[in-house]
Amino acid sequence: MYQMTTEDLELQQSARAFVDDLIPYEAEAELNEGELPPEVAQTMKARAKTSGLLATNMPKSLGGGGYSMFQQVLVQEQVGRATNGLAWMVSTPPQWWPEVATEFQTQRWIVPTIDGEAAECYAITEEYAGSDVDAITSTARRDRSDYVLDGVKWHVTSYNEATYAFFQGRLTNGPHAGEHAMFVVDLPTQGVRVVRTPAYSHTIAHHHPIVAFEGVRVPVSHLIGDEGGGMGFAYEWFRFERFMVAARCLGAAERLIDEATRFAAERVVYGQPIIDYQLVQAMLADSVTELFAARSIVYEAARGVDEGRDLKVQHAQASMVKLYSSEMANRVADRAVQIFGGRGYMRENVAERFFRELRVERIWEGTSEIQRVIIAAQLAKRGVTGLI
Ligand SMILES: Cc1cc2nc3c(=O)[nH]c(=O)nc-3n(C[C@H](O)[C@H](O)[C@H](O)COP(=O)(O)OP(=O)(O)OC[C@H]3O[C@@H](n4cnc5c(N)ncnc54)[C@H](O)[C@@H]3O)c2cc1C
To answer: Which residue, of 8, 92, 132, 172, has the fewest CB within 10 Å?
Structure first.
C-alpha cells in the first residue's frame, strides 16, 4: 500500500518497533511529569541514534539521515503513536540551518545537535505576537562586534532540555533596522532567565517557560544568515514542522483507532460487544475513513516536496495537511474517549491522554485559522488546479 520501497518499509518498521517499546511507559510517565525512568530514557536515546532515527532531516554529509520528506513523515507518524511526547527523542533539528550556517556554527551547534549531544529550542512567540510573528517587539542592537538582545519570549518549548535557543528579534540599528534577525544563544548565558514555567494541558517532560532575555550579549558569529533573514528561517521551519505535526497526528489517530476497536470488540454491554452496536460502528468507521483521507494527502504532499513542487504550493499544502490531520486527530480522540466510556476519562487511558495532548496540534506551528488563511490566499492566486 502507498507504494513504499523496501527502504521506506524498513525505516517505518524500525521507527514503529522503537515506539512500541516506549508505549508501556506512558501511564507511568503521565503520573511522573512526563518523565521516563532515567535508565530507560538513556537506553532509548542511545537506540534512537544507533537505529538511524535521529536527525533524519539533516544532511548525510554532517551525520544526519538525509532522508526524503516522505521517509521523515513515515518516522514521525510512528513518533506520534506514543503519548506524553515520549518519542520526541526522535528529533528533527533545524533543517534550514546547514545551508546558511557558517563553518563555526556548523561545528559548534549543528554537528553536536545531529549527534544528539546538543539540543535547540525556539524563542520566537511573545505575549502579544503569536499568529502574527511580525508583531514581535524583542530587539537586537548591534554594538561593535556583539549584538545585544532584549525581549520576553513565551511558550519556549524544550527550554529545560535545550543547550541553545534561537532568538528572533527586530534590529534597532544598522542598515536593516526594523527587520528581523535570528540568533543563537547558548544556554545558560548571562541575562537569560526563566520568568515562570506555566502548567499546560499535556504532561510531557519538555517545559514551555516564559523566558526573559535582558541585555544578552552574543558575538556577531551567533547571527544566522544575514541581518533581515529572520522571518525567512521561521517560515522554512513552519513549512517543515507542519508536515511533522500532520505526520504525528496520523500516528496518534492510528493508535486511538486500534485501541478503541480492540476495546469495542471486548467490552460487553447489554449482552453484546459494543462493536456490534451501529452507533459505535459509526464512530470507528468515520475515524478510520478520515485517517485514510489524512494519510493519503500527507503522503502525497510529502512526495510533492521530494519532487520539488513549486514552493508556494508546498507552503499551501503543508497548511492543508496540518489543518486536516490535526482536526481529524482531535475528532478521533473525542470519539475514542466516548467509546471507552468512563475509562476514557481516566488518565491511565490512552484516549484521555491524547484527548488533551492533541488539542495543541490545532494551535502551535500556526493555528487552524492561520492555516485556512494561508490556503485561501493561495487558492485565490492559483485556483483549485494550481493547488491540488
Ligand atoms: C504548548 C505550546 C508550545 C509552543 N511552543 C512554541 C515554541 O517552542 N516557540 C515559539 O516561538 N512558540 C511556541 N508556541 C506558540 C504558538 O506557536 C502560538 O501559540 C500560536 O502560533 C498562536 O499564537 P497565539 O497563542 O499568540 O494566539 P493568537 O495569535 O493570539 O490567536 C488567538 C486566536 O485568534 C485567531 N486568529 C489570529 N489571527 C487570525 C486571523 N488572521 N484570522 C482568523 N483568526 C485569527 C487564532 O487562530 C486564535 O484562535 C507554543 C504554543 C503552545 C501552546
So the answer is: 132
